[in-house]
Amino acid sequence: MQNRKNTVDWHGVMINGKNETSMSWKRSYPGDRVDRFLQASEQGRLAADIIRRLQSQGYETYLVGGAVRDSLLGRSPREFDIASSAHPRQVAETFPEARWVGAQFGVMLVPLQGYNFDVATFRRDSHYIDGRHPQQVKFCSAQEDACRRDFTVNALYYDPVRKRVYDDVGGWDDLGNRILRTIGPARTRLEEDYLRIMRAVRFAAQLRFRIAPELRTEIEHLRDKIAGLSMERVQMEMNKLLLAPGKRFGLELMQQFGLMRVLLPEVNAMSGVPQSAKHHPEGDVWQHILKMFDHLVWPDPVLAWAVLLHDVGKPITYAQNEKGEPTFYQHEAIGSELARDILQRLRYSNEHTTRVSRLVRRHMQFTQLPHMRQSTLRRFMDSPDFGLELELHRIDCAASHARFHTYHYALDVLHRFANTPLVPPPLLRGRDIVAAGIPPGPVVGQLLQELQQLQLDGKISQEEEAREWLSRRLQTMNDNRGSGQ
């Protein structure tokens, strides 16, 4: 068998040992903007180096997908995926440190200077048997590789050597018209992998694109299919959606298409639940949630999920007082349990689930902050996620009554304790109580708790003061015991 590097095949013509780009691309465009973004980051420059090295070995190789799309839109790429005519073993020959990460799909991971790059062999997928997995994968031409992808704007190929963008599916025009369209019939593409329904919503939100009419129709037709997806895959898409620049738009699309009803019926139930106009002039519970996402700036998945779920208990607890005003007693406690159920259903980690559930459970306590005694306040603010809780409170206020006095009060307290622990180490330990004559048992814990409260209230600050207090407290206990009290 001849060496692949020295043969003529569909990739193009070998000239002086180098591969010439196939002339069968339908369109090519200047790639100056993509080149600028590649050169602007170390990761981009390394991706271009990988492509050049593979091309120098005679393999047709391009930057593909989101990096090309985002660069053309003037956005800094975060991922740099590479597609090549090189088969996995040939990638490994060029990059001995490469690892197999998707052998059945021809994907190799090339580590380079602290970054990881996926290098995938051009492939064509056969019939999909389960809404996700193709029956068979065959290596193919770059043009066929483009045609198997999901959306036209994700199927643009960039050659950093020639500085040209190649397009076989109309992605360049759709990018300019800001429209999301599938490659080929929308139903066919969505049935290949039902997660593409979620991806369509996420891309539309992230890019602020219109969804093509045919794609909208098929999303509505196939929406119930997403219930059968792996919840881990749904979780990943939801995280990306909740942190996307157009997250509110994405949630609105999920509601419009009926996806929320299928995936998160508890969240869907918030739509139409009325609230007090005095505290929530923005409208019902769902409108409040959407407005909060307008104010969400921290890219933190725990905070994003807390924003989405902090009022999820309101539909269940909705009632009216004697004046006919909406009430939601204990909605934070019930919502905390609902949040736990939802996140467990989506296969989130115990840590993530616990943190979100805690934020939901505690979010109403912020109204009491200015009225708490100092010891209670300091314990409350010593929560491991208090920074996220405070940001949730700020967003909650910004999306409703716009009163921030409690938020600023909390900031003042944090400033006051900037150089002092909110809950400092105890002045005495259990062994000190036992040494003073109290046998091990519940009384020891009770005395330590009393002492900590005095310490947090600022009434005792030194170990000597603590020992004096303990002596007086034990004397009082002995006196009470002697008098029969």
Describe the protein in words.
By secondary structure, this protein is an alpha+beta fold. It folds into 4 domains: 4-175, Beta Polymerase, domain 2; 178-263, Orthogonal Bundle (Hydrophobic Seed Protein); 269-423, Orthogonal Bundle (Hypothetical protein af1432), CATH 1.10.3210; 430-479, no CATH class. The protein contains 24 helices and 16 strands. The strands form 5 sheets. An 8-stranded mixed beta sheet has the order 3-12-11-4-5-8-7-6. Strands 1-2 form a two-stranded antiparallel ribbon. A hairpin with a 4-residue loop joins strand 11 and strand 12 (164-167). The N and C termini lie far apart (101 Å).
Topology:
Layout: E1 14-15, E2 18-19, E3 27-30, H1 32-39, H2 42-56, E4 61-64, H3 66-72, E5 81-84, H4 88-94, E6 99-102, E7 107-112, E8 115-121, E9 123-125, E10 137-139, H5 142-147, E11 156-159, E12 164-167, H6 171-177, E13 179-180, H7 186-192, H8 195-207, E14 210-211, H9 213-222, H10 231-242, H11 247-257, H12 259-263, H13 265-268, H14 285-295, H15 301-309, H16 314-317, E15 319-320, E16 326-327, H17 331-345, H18 350-362, H19 374-381, H20 386-398, H21 405-416, H22 430-435, H23 442-456, H24 463-482
Parallel strand pairs: 5-8, 13-14
Antiparallel strand pairs: 1-2, 3-12, 4-5, 4-11, 6-7, 7-8, 9-10, 11-12, 15-16
Helix pairs in contact: 1-3, 7-9, 8-10, 8-11, 11-14, 15-18, 15-20, 17-18, 19-23
